[in-house]
């Protein structure tokens, strides 16, 4: 099978499992070459996700699309990320949000990353920290607060975790009604995430193959 056939087959299989037509599929192309992104673009994919600044920059200049950054954020990379990313999913600190707002020369969609357990190794802010972060985003003309993003704790039962994430999101949008989107669900759990209310899923390995790193 050619790489094109392989990607086409995997993409169709993932799409067939997405029962809600309103869900946005972000294809996470991290670690895979620009040639794969090119094929996916020819297959109609427009939303691409990356975890590293250098890699996202390289691919986004080559291929048109809506580029999502969902990796861990390093302060010194934010200015660069603002040049190529259209959407940033992994914001969890006031200083990063302010810095991004200052760096952005166009409107960026942002998601605040929620942590269910406060584990610093996984990133994310706990529910009580979200309003202060949201207020900074709302005060910036360059940032549009799209919603929340969450990766459940490794040991968590996915349905329990996504149910809790959705409940937190509902409470959050009662104060921040524009933050309608919920970015949750990856290759291993996206159907459950959609069931629980995810509007954006970030899927890599089910489409491109399993990665040896990251
Ligand atoms: C790598 C990554 C994904 C995609 O993961 P898969 O299991 O390959 O689908 C989604 N979200 C984040 C934050 C990631 O780091």
What share of residues are in beta strands? 15-25%
Number of domains: 1
> Can you write the helix and strand succession as a string?
HEHEHEHEHEHEHEHEH
The count of strands amounts to 8
Overall spatial form = globular
The largest β sheet comes out as: 8 strands, parallel
- Under the CATH scheme, the architecture is Alpha-Beta Barrel
Structural class: alpha/beta
What's the mean pLDDT score? Answer: 97
* CA radius of gyration: 16 Å
Distance between the termini: 26 Å
- CATH class value: Alpha Beta
Strand order of the biggest β-sheet:
7-6-5-4-3-2-1-8
Parts with pLDDT < 50 across at least 5 consecutive residues = none
| Fraction of helical residues | 40-55%
What ligands does this structure carry?
A: pyridoxal-5'-phosphate
| CATH homologous superfamily assignment | Alanine racemase
Q: Return the CATH topology.
A: TIM Barrel
Number of helices: 9
């Amino acid at each position: 099978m050619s790489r094109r056939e392989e990607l086409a087959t995997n993409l169709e299989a993932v799409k067939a499992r997405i029962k809600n037509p309103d869900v946005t599929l972000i294809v996470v192309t991290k670690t895979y070459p620009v040639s794969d992104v090119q094929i996916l673009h020819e297959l109609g994919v427009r939303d691409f996700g990356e975890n590293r600044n250098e890699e996202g920059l390289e691919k986004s200049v080559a291929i048109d699309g809506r580029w999502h950054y969902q990796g861990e954020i390093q302060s010194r990379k934010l200015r660069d990320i603002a040049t190529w990313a259209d959407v940033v999913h992994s914001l969890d600190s006031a200083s990063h949000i302010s810095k991004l707002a200052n760096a952005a020369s166009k409107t960026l969609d942002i998601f605040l990353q929620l942590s269910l357990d406060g584990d610093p190794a996984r990133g994310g802010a706990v529910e009580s920290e979200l309003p202060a972060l949201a207020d900074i985003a709302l005060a910036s003309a360059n940032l549009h607060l799209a919603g929340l993003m969450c990766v459940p704790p490794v040991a968590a039962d996915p349905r329990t975790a996504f149910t809790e994430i959705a409940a937190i999101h509902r409470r959050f949008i009662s104060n921040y009604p524009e933050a309608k989107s919920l970015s949750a669900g990856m290759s291993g759990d996206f159907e459950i995430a959609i069931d629980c209310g995810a509007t954006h899923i970030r899927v890599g390995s089910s489409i491109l193959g399993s990665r040896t790193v990251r």
